[in-house]
Design a protein that fits this description.
heterotetramer; A: about 325 residues; alpha/beta; Rossmann fold; five-stranded parallel beta sheet; two-stranded antiparallel sheet; about 50% helix; globular; B: about 350 residues; 2 domains; seven-stranded mixed beta sheet; five-stranded mixed beta sheet; about 20% strand; binds thiamine diphosphate; binds magnesium ion
Chain lengths: ~325, ~350, ~350, ~325
């Protein structure tokens, strides 16, 4: 793959996530999306960088803040929009919504409404790989809050003793809802928790897609050669509150500004131009293409029917 | 300490369920230094449903504690604090997350008194909320009271009104045994009369929410308002329904239930939880055992469908009992003719 | 795959319950590379009750895996492995420790098919054992099947004989949904006929363990041998008891139960678990609902007392149903006279 | 307290535990004790050294292998024996047995049948201390197996962020039943797990009661001054199988011999003579005293009645 194609794909995902989330926030405010909705705005580089390093037969495990992971892994935007709009055409017939999108076809084991709940599932994917003896790998996405749940530590240990090909991708966005990581941990450097379990670990700039991509690539090599697991702590910050309805007033202005200045989509855009050889005009056209694609998907989802009660009770529920 | 129930009819201040809960905690924290509150976002944020709002300002960080996402251990810490002389109120954001604290509640808290020959006590209250509503989907909408109901050593409280919420929470905090206090997400904003003066509701004392003579509905939590409105509709058709709210599932006010059923000779139990293995089944089994001769028809159960709760709002609604389902069950029961 | 039940009367090889379980796993692991076993001490030690003995030698470390004491995560790993194409059999040493795996079973495994619109499946078997016996006390003696019974998406199997244990475990392993397979610590050494040739027992198919016409006892797991011996004693007094073992609580063989109760017009349910909120209550509620007109007496429940299980052997015994309790309940039911 | 008295108390506890366990094993083999019974043989120095450093108003949390902790904390031997023999005079009316002895009076929060289950309870004790603002402290006993359970990591973190006066006393006896720690962890040095959570930690010789005492003392000072928690990994080894019925054949002879040569009771005996100034004769007399006390307690327990069904159901069970 040429640099041009590489950066094109990267930027496509970054920008798609950005526009997808913005559209959904609008739909949410219009009352067309209900329930919980946790935007991935500001963290796009992590999902995109990590997934770019994966093979098509690898697995990922996502979170309650999962749209970015799904898109970066090649998820179908129409199915995603239909799902969050509670329509039959959605990934889950509209039965799951934002927090429960899984895409078995792309190896996305799924989002999760239980913080930390997905981590052991990723260990299981690693275990099947190890039993089958293939060279697949797993990336488990989770955030700082989840790292305080016991299953994180247990899972680190299981992955370590079984040498599983698992990357723990810790999206340290410094908050669990409104609780800052400084109040939930004595150290902000969460990767250090891995070392006590004999797991390789490092911290990186989670807003730079190139850094994320390269570190994931490296960690994957360790994993595929049977020396895994690996923990990567990607430092980042949300560009807003915890969910759509949270104004995030507790987030200090300076810190927000700092991370805004390191916006992952803008950074990716620069790479697209400087390393991918795109002209400003080309980028603009590309962006419009993506916007249109999402606009169409939104229309598709809006106009889709809901699952009928009959079908639900007679065919879906066993 | 004598806990006595008194309803002051003179005062008719109207406040929300969540405000009533907040008042109960405020009063008990003022009254007793050993009462403290712990959970995710209970301090700075005042709780996801605002039940603990204002507590941090009033009582400070030592007694109003924000926790990391470590449900098993901070609940265990609550149990340990209770054993060592405190009266913790632990908040678990959703009853769906109590799956993470079952060891601490079931193997530790519920059995501690027993395992210390009565010398150790665990005066902890675990506040949580359950039920479906507003598209929160399968992992944030469950009704799991049946699990706690099945465990000897636990008390289970499920208030349906602001008045009950306050009086029961105050009693739960003063109780010397572990209490699972289960709120409902759709009730927090519901309003009701709550006197300003202090009162308690004894755990184990149910209430007749509507007097009637033709049939008894037994129900709790968010199914009470629904049962009451079904009763009003049925009244228009000349069917006089008695609605009973046990308020606490453990201890269960069996006498109130039996007296009513023996009077009306017909019973319908309404629960939001899944039918299979729910508390309704247990109450039905008790009624048919104790009032077999008095029943004109089988005890009917209106309950949640056998499915995780769907995100789609129409299907969510279809998965749990609606007014029409209750009305249907009442009519079917009253029309039952022995073979 | 067609699962069919066949009992070969010609072969009457007698083996232990634990041996029957072991054979089921051996056969299924030979038959299918994706089947593997995981748990504490299942490999080197062959399992605390020897159910997994010999597997390590036969299948090696990759498929017979000793785990650290991390129940939540290795069960979750089982769920994740199942999602990604394997058929794990996860052992939890005591059902009392399933408190630690409830998130992975209830929020993850049970709901995954639902949450993926049917595209994801979780063919996991969680083997565990429950019940009291031999003074293992309050944290190693519980009967918690009611919890799993209440959760849509889970199957629950509780075999009472070596024959059933083998045939049901083989079906459970081939099932595409999560199955809680609950053994009983006092049954492992019990012997029974098990044919050498392969057979399966369909999940959802109960069995009449003793034919009778006067009254129906419904029971499962270790209460089956006890019910059968009570039935023999009652036969001496001219009371002809039918004993039904649903074998799987979910799916429940309602037809078998209803047909029997409609025939005998009397039912007693016997469970080791605590009475309040147990599976017996649910079955009683179903019987009174579906066979109200056919009943000559209320459905009786014989169940564990409302207490944690005591260490002292005499008190342990007094806390769970004994033969005499069953006999008493049968007689009381048959002597019931309406008003 | 004089050195003589100090070492007398230490040795009393060491030797009492030793004789208590040996007696119980005999009673078990005679069929007089039933259920699970996990002897503390070989690990006596940890309970005794740690408890010697405590104040009378401190708390301890024990385990399924809990007789040593209870005795070292001043538990009543008659009540313990009555309990394991399932008699009414026991700590718990004979309703709990070996795995469920708690002694509220001496601040022993109790043994536990759930591995790891007690750890958060100790955090709770630390929390009450912190809320009340007293200078009490807590020692949580647990072993290597429990350190693989998620509540251990969660609890480390809670204790750390709340600066709780809690000592995590990790009795690393290298086994969880028959599973060696090398198979359950990539590193045998479990204290390293604490560092990732910002918790002070160190490893010591768990068979030397003086070392345990001194390190606990030091850790307690840290705790009482508000800079806790502290994790102490005390390396040790069982002198037999996991429970009475386990011959422990999987334990390598050399390793067993090595730890046998560092027997904690013998080591304590030397201290009693060398630092406590006891003569060999005095020690022997003292040992006979202890043996007799236990013999009497055994007789007492044997001859005690069991709790009646009536009392059980009408008074104890609510
Ligand atoms: C076990 C559990 N506890 C609490 C919650 C409620 N909750 C939802 S998201 C969230 C914060 C999660 O923080 P983090 O893991 O850092 O993820 P982030 O939101 O930052 O991506 C909480 C507490 C939950 N869903 N599951
Ligand atoms: C949660 C849980 N899992 C499993 C068991 C069964 N079990 C009892 S003791 C034990 C080993 C414990 O090992 P460790 O924590 O090292 O303690 P040790 O026996 O070495 O003192 C196990 C697995 C249990 N009691 N609780
Ligand atoms: Mg976060
Ligand atoms: Mg150990």
């Amino acid at each position: 793959m040429s640099f041009r194609e590489f950066w094109r794909d990267i930027y496509k995902n970054l920008y798609t996530i950005r526009v997808f989330e913005k559209n959904c926030i609008r739909l949410y405010r219009q009352g067309l999306i209900v329930g919980y909705f946790h935007p991935y705005l500001g963290e796009e580089a992590i999902a995109v960088g990590a997934c770019a390093a994966l093979r098509s037969d690898d697995y990922i495990v996502s979170t309650h803040r999962g749209h970015g992971h799904c898109i970066a892994r090649g998820g179908d935007i129409r199915k995603m929009l239909a799902e969050v709009l509670a329509k039959e055409a959605g990934y889950c017939y509209g039965l799951g919504g934002s927090m429960h999108i899984a895409d078995v076809a792309t190896g996305n084991i799924g989002a999760n409404g239980i913080v930390g709940g997905g981590i052991p599932l990723g260990i299981g994917a690693g275990l099947s790989i190890s039993i089958r003896g293939t060279e697949q790998a797993v990336v488990i996405f989770f955030s700082d809050g989840a790292s305080n749940n016991g299953v994180f530590a247990e899972s680190l240990n299981l992955a370590a003793i079984w040498n599983l090909p698992v990357i723990f991708m810790l999206e340290n966005n410094h908050y669990a809802v409104s609780t800052p990581i400084e109040e939930a941990s004595r150290t902000e450097d969460l990767y250090k928790r891995a070392e006590g379990y004999g797991v390789f670990a490092t911290a990186i700039d989670g807003n730079d897609v190139k850094v994320v991509y390269e570190k994931t690539k490296e960690a994957l090599e360790v994993c595929r050669s049977g020396r895994g697991p690996f923990l990567v702590e990607a430092k980042t910050y949300r560009q807003g509150g915890h969910h759509v309805n949270d104004p995030g007033k507790y987030m200090p202005r300076e810190k927000l500004d700092y991370y805004m200045s390191k916006d992952p989509v803008q950074t990716g855009r620069k790479y697209l131009i400087n390393e991918g050889g795109f002209s400003e005009d080309e980028v603009k056209r590309f962006e419009t293409e993506i916007e249109n694609e999402i606009k169409e998907a939104v229309e598709f989802a809006k106009n889709s029917p809901e699952l009928s009660e009959e079908k639900y009770f007679n065919e879906i529920v066993i | 300490m004598t806990i006595s129930e008194k309803k002051e009819n003179s005062e008719n201040r109207v406040i929300m369920y969540r405000e009533a809960l907040n008042e109960a905690i405020m009063e008990e924290m003022k009254n007793d230094d050993t009462v403290f509150v712990m959970g995710e976002g209970v301090a700075e944020r005042g709780g996801s449903y605002k039940v603990t709002a204002g507590l941090l300002d009033e009582f400070g960080k030592k007694r109003v504690i924000d926790t990391p996402i470590s449900e098993a251990s901070f609940t265990g810490a609550g149990v340990g604090a209770a054993i060592t002389g405190m009266r913790p109120i632990v908040e678990i954001l959703f009853i769906d997350f109590t799956v993470l604290i079952m060891d601490q509640i079931v193997n530790q808290a519920a059995k501690y008194k027993f395992m210390t020959g009565g010398k150790g006590r665990v005066p902890i209250v675990v506040r949580t909320q359950g039920g479906s509503g507003n598209g929160l989907a399968a992992q944030h909408s469950q009704s799991l009271e049946a699990w706690f109901y099945h465990i000897p050593g636990l008390k289970v409280v499920m208030p349906s009104t602001p008045y009950d919420a306050k009086g029961l929470l105050k009693s739960a905090i003063r109780d010397d045994d572990p209490v699972m206090f289960i709120e409902h997400k759709l009730l927090y904003m519901k309003k009701g009369e709550v006197p300003e003066s202090e009162y308690f509701i004894e755990l184990g004392r149910g209430e007749i929410k509507r007097k009637g003579k033709d049939i008894t509905i037994i129900s709790w939590s968010n199914m009470i308002p629904r049962s009451l409105s079904a009763a009003e509709r049925l009244a228009e058709e000349g069917i006089d329904v008695e609605v009973i709210d046990p308020r606490t599932l453990v201890p269960l006010d069996r006498k109130l239930i039996m007296d009513s059923v023996k009077k009306t000779r017909n019973a319908v139990i309404v629960q939001e939880a899944v039918r299979r293995g729910g508390v309704a089944s247990d109450i039905a089994s008790i009624i048919q055992e104790e009032a077999f001769e008095s029943l004109d028809a089988p005890v009917a159960i209106v309950a949640g469908k056998n499915t995780p709760i769907p995100f789609n709002l129409r299907l969510e609604k279809a998965s749990i009992p609606q007014e029409k389902d209750i009305i249907l069950a009442v009519k079917k029961t009253l029309n039952f003719k022995i073979g």
